[in-house]
Amino acid sequence: MTKYADQSALNLIAGEPVTGKEEWEIRNPARTSQVVGRVSVATFEQVDDAAQAAAKAAPEWAAVPVAERVAIASAAAAIIEQKAGELGWDVLLTREQGKILPEAVVEFAFAQIEAQYINTVAEQVFADEVLDDWAGRRISTRVPIGPVAAITPWNAPVGLSALKLFPALICGNPVVLKPAPTTPLAITRVVESIAHLFPPGALSVVHGGADVAQALIHHDSIRKVSFTGSVANGKSVMREASQGLKDVLLELGGNDAAILLDDVVIDEDFIEQLIGATFMSSGQICMAIKRVYVPQSRHDEFVTALSDALAMTLVGDGLDEDVTMGPVHNKMQYDRVRELVAEARAAGAAITPLGRMQAEINADDGYFLLPSVVTNVPHSTRLVLEEQFGPALPVIPYATEDEAVRLANSTDYGLGSSVWSADVDRAFTLSRELQAGATWINAHNMSGLDISCAFGGFKQSGIGREFGLAGLEAYTEFRYLTNRMQ
Ligand code: NAD
Questions:
Q1: pTM of this prediction?
Q2: Domain identity same for 399 and 441
Q3: What are the tens digits of pLDDT across the range 200-211?
Q4: Contact residues of ligand 1, CB 6 A cut-off
Q5: For residue 394, what are the domain limits?
Q6: Cα torsion for 67, 73, 77, 83, to the nearest 10°?
């Protein structure tokens, strides 16, 4: 007997729960023998129903004044805030995703913070800009773009879905959400609790895998595809969306470099920041630190301080309050991280696993990996050049800052990055050399994120921006109205 009620996630179409063609089991990554719930996979007809309902709701929702849409979104955010803890959605998120409970709580808080920020600037996006110039009087305006397909990954299923739902809806667009098939439960609870605030069809959810996502992307009613996920699937989304010449917003993978300068202060606070930015969610965050570049002269001191602190890690079931790091989310991720680490070891790297496994867990019944520090690693290994998305951190010594910048830029990714130094001006100067959508100084990942700044990737880390005004404008069409030239 388990003390948790079995959870199910149905599709939600035009305000109604709808059973799909089959059910997939959702298992707990910390106890894979445990079924957390079931998800009902949508048929293509149901995808069509959801997209058609979105098209039907579009004019009505777009006609609601921005201030009213903002008020509705605020009410939705308040419901999420109230119910997440009260109804145990945070516990559910930990059980389906694997992350420790405090991180699940942060994810719900993140959803509300996003909504609040967007609410404060939404009117600004739609304000007419009146221009008088050589051609006479012109007015620039923005209008909703139309029904949006929001396709989201498993690593932050609530936060990353909210990051699409709130801006798209506040900008007057209906949304059909397609969550990741292995983390549908908590986000479905969220959508079920707020969908009634919007016109029927303005907020729907369809469940399933790539085929359901593709059916949605192809649907004639969809005008924008907002996708967060892997680079390979992002390319496929872009290819498919191009068939209907649809706008895309792609938030893809990252291989973020952190560069430590030679004056960095290696104290408790710094190590705590760095570990949080790297190993949060077992390293499965797009903008987590994935590589560290350290001056040769500070290498051993840094590795010792990092290893001493990581030795305190307790890996296990994220619901246990003593546990500081959960499992990785799925078997594919578990195998991939182990494979990349084994490849690095074969290439001569030294792998140091740190911390310990919780005594109560069955290590064979979960995707548990101890955090590892990887030294003496050739830069050409996949562990350095690709996104490992797991708790194994390569530490790479450098001789000059030019070399550090060259190595940091030598990947196909360009999402986040950071420079750590006692001299902020010096760090800012170097930051301009990095090819990434964001460079944080003495911060990285959640500690660096500023929701008023547009965030997104260079190179293969994506197209478009979320957060900031640009993150709202992404869900609008720009147009201008003008009288005849004088
Ligand atoms: P994924 O690409 O496997 O899946 C993401 C979503 O896309 C899921 O809903 C999935 O069902 C759907 N999907 C899968 N194949 C598809 C296809 N061919 N066409 C359309 N949709 C498809 O990603 P994941 O493994 O769930 O998430 C991890 C990846 O997401 C990592 O690479 C990570 O860096 C990235 N990510 C990026 C950001 C960012 O903001 N840049 C944030 C979080 C995660």
A1: 0.97
A2: yes
A3: 999 999 999 999
A4: 151-155, 160, 178, 180-181, 209-210, 213-214, 228-230, 233, 236-237, 251-254, 286, 387, 389, 415, 457, 462
A5: 256-450
A6: 130
